[in-house]
Every structure is written in structure tokens, then in C-alpha cells.
Specification:
This protein has helices at residues 2-6, 14-67, 75-92, 117-131, 139-161, 169-189, 194-217, 230-240. The chain is mostly helical and 241 residues long. Helix 2 (14-67) runs antiparallel to helix 5 (139-161). The longest helix has 54 residues, at 14-67. The N and C termini lie far apart (65 Å).
């Protein structure tokens, strides 16, 4: 709008304005299409990550339930499973109150997303313990626990792979550049009046919130619309009963 005030009148003829509107309409169409597709894709990826986390929590609780069949023989393994689950909660949601289980790994410095070496080793130890469960008279239960552990590993890798989402840095930069040009053209077309400026500001705010949602949903454990820790807490609570 400030640029419009500085331009000579011959730049603001109806022919020039029509050409600006034509190019602006093309850019608006592209931006709207890409924003809608990206928002849909990001929301779908977020929902998948949330579902994978809930499945992971259920698998951990199911493994603990299976280990209870072996009573005291599986108590050390169940303790490791509790330590692991508590450490996952503390490292994934560092801003929340961390659960405390005796002997759990130090979660300071652990990544919020992806694989951690200490947690991976603890899970491997749990797997070795499951393989070493006494099978005398409990062959079927031991087989079921090994299958439950395999399900945990599969769910764990699904959660880890969710951390490998493509970076949206270039996308945000390019679309922001497009939108800046679009609103620049809007500023050239509208008169310099308070109502026009207010409407333009509302448009900028509306589109910015869409960009914010896309960026925020791509950070499923850090953003405003983050994945809840409730499922993991419920799994740990079930283990401690």
C-alpha cells in the first residue's frame, strides 16, 4: 500500500491492474492448492504418528501382562520394562512431570524423537530376558510373550520412523515468498483506506495461521497440537499395578 502511494498514476492504469490481477489469481490458485494439500498431508502424518504412539503403548502394556504369568521369575524383566517406559515418557515429553521408576536411565540429553542408544540397549536386554524365560509347563505362554515382544519391537520402529518426516524448511520459504508477492499485489490494487487495510490484515492473519498449523503439526511432540502422553502414562500405570 505504501508502494502504491509512491507510484505514478500511469503505473496504476486499468490495463496494468488487470494484468496484476491475472498473475495474482494464478499465484493464489497455486498457493491455495499447495497449502490445502500440504495441510492434509501433514495432518495425516500427525494422525499416523499419534496412532503409532498409542499402539506402542498398548504393545508395551500387553507384554507386561504376558510376563505376569511367570510371576517372580519375570519380575526383573518387568522392572526393566517399567524403567524403559518411564524413560521414554520422560525423554519424549520433557516439559511434563517425569515419572520415576527406580533404576531408570538418565533421560537428560536424550532426543525427543528418534532412537536413543541407551533405550535401545535396555529394550535388547528385555528381549534377551524374554528369550530366557523358563518354559517348563509354560511353553505356550513363553511363545506368546516372545510374540508380544516382537510386536513391541515392530511398534517401536514405527514410532522411530515417524521422526524421519521430510523437512519443510524449503517448503515454508517458497510458499512464504509466493504469499508475500500475492499480498504485495493486493496492496497495489486496493485503495489506501482503513477498511481495506483491515481486510488485508485479516487475510494475512488467516493465511499465516494455516502456515502455522502446517509447521506445528510437523513437530508432533513439540508444537501446540502435540501428541498426548496419556497412552504411555496409562501403560506405565498398568505395569505398576
Amino acid at each position: 500500500m505504501a508502494l502504491r502511494k509512491r507510484l505514478h498514476e500511469h503505473h496504476l492504469t486499468s490495463e496494468n491492474m488487470d494484468s496484476i490481477r491475472l498473475v495474482t489469481g494464478l499465484m493464489v490458485t497455486f498457493a491455495a492448492l499447495i497449502l490445502s494439500l500440504q495441510l492434509s498431508t501433514t495432518r495425516t502424518r500427525f494422525d499416523v504418528s499419534s496412532g503409532n504412539r498409542s499402539t506402542y503403548a498398548a504393545r508395551l502394556a500387553n507384554l507386561d501382562q504376558c510376563l505376569r504369568i511367570f510371576k517372580t521369575a519375570a519380575d526383573p524383566t518387568r522392572l526393566k520394562l517399567q524403567q524403559y517406559t518411564a524413560a521414554v515418557i520422560a525423554s519424549t515429553w520433557p516439559r511434563e512431570a517425569a515419572p520415576v521408576v527406580a533404576g531408570m536411565p538418565d533421560t537428560r540429553g536424550m532426543a525427543v524423537r528418534g532412537e536413543d542408544r541407551n533405550l535401545a540397549q535396555l529394550m535388547s536386554d528385555i528381549g534377551a530376558d524374554v528369550d530366557a524365560l523358563p518354559t517348563t509347563g509354560l511353553e505356550h505362554s513363553a511363545t506368546r510373550c516372545r510374540a508380544a515382544y516382537a510386536d513391541v519391537i515392530s511398534a517401536r520402529w514405527s514410532v522411530i520412523e515417524d521422526a524421519n518426516a521430510p523437512s519443510g524448511g524449503y517448503f515454508v520459504g517458497i510458499v512464504s515468498f509466493w504469499l508475500s508477492l500475492v499480498f504485495l499485489s493486493f496492496g497495489l490494487q486496493i485503495p489506501r483506506r482503513a477498511l481495506s487495510a483491515a481486510v488485508l490484515g485479516i487475510g494475512v492473519l488467516s493465511v499465516s495461521t494455516v502456515m502455522f498449523m502446517i509447521v506445528d503439526l510437523s513437530l508432533p511432540y513439540q508444537g501446540v497440537f502435540h501428541i498426548s502422553s496419556a497412552a504411555m502414562h496409562e501403560a506405565l500405570a498398568d505395569m505398576l499395578r
